[in-house]
Amino acid sequence: MTAYEHAPGPATLAPLRRSDIPRCVEIEHILFPGDDPWSAVAFRAELNSGAYYLGAYDGDGALLGYGGLAILGKRGDYETEVHTIGVVPQWQGYGIGGALLSALLAKADELDAPVFLEVRTDNDAAIALYEKNGFVRVGVREGYYQPSGADAYTMHRPSVSESDGSDGRRAR
Ligand SMILES: CC(C)(COP(=O)(O)OP(=O)(O)OC[C@H]1O[C@@H](n2cnc3c(N)ncnc32)[C@H](O)[C@@H]1OP(=O)(O)O)[C@@H](O)C(=O)NCCC(=O)NCCS
Question: What GO molecular-function term can you cite, just one (predicted)?
């Protein structure tokens, strides 16, 4: 449980619940209106796949944001992907997105897994968040987002073993 000192109220992180899916779908339509927002079916498929999903909740238990990490491969050779991260507009800028991402990356580090993600090339806030957390751009996927046709950067963050330690992480 984590409190955010500067947020409009207390916020905590916890495993995303299936009962949150309708609200996730509403938030998707607010955050990604032109980029095929995820449906309830998509969220259910993510949770059923064993991906690591967290929600951020206000003091009344209302969902403020969510983030999900897909875990691919097998023990000793995991690879992970940040599949989504989003915070409702009124709560953006208070550290919740950063906290969600840190928690997903802690899970990837626990598995000693590299992390990949795609981000719109014009999404300056998200790119800044990812670069601050050790991601580098490794490619561009043209027209990745539909129906907008927007391009995506593919970004990569090395596993703990691959890391040179310059970001404070140490190979085990
Ligand atoms: C990207 C997003 C999740 C960030 O969440 P947030 O709670 O607002 O972010 P935080 O307050 O934790 O900020 C963490 C870092 O993100 C970056 N950041 C956040 N908002 C930013 C902005 N408006 N401009 C530039 N950088 C920004 C900064 O690096 C910031 O660190 P700093 O405060 O030390 O400068 C949020 O803006 C969001 O939901 N955006 C819409 C959905 C989206 O684009 N998701 C990413 C899809 S790939």
Answer: protein-N-terminal-alanine acetyltransferase activity
Q: Is 64 in the pocket of ligand 1 (CB under 6 A)?
A: no
CATH of domain 11-117: 3.40.630.30
The DSSP symbol for 88 reads: -
In the predicted model, residues of the chain with pLDDT beneath 50 are 1
- Torsion sign, CA atoms 26, 127, 42, 68: negative
Show me where the domains of the chain are located: 11-117
| Residue with the two structure tokens 């995820």 | 38
- Please list the residues that pair with 81 across neighbouring strands: 70, 116
Q: Which two tokens stand for residue 125?
A: 């806030």
Tell me, using a 6 A CB cutoff, whether residue 97 lines ligand 1. Answer: yes
Q: Is 124 in the pocket of ligand 1 (CB under 6 A)?
A: yes
Q: Where are the alpha helices (DSSP H) in the chain?
A: 21-31, 40-48, 96-110, 124-132
State pLDDT tens for residues 44-79. Answer: 999 999 999 999 999 999 999 999 999 999 988 999
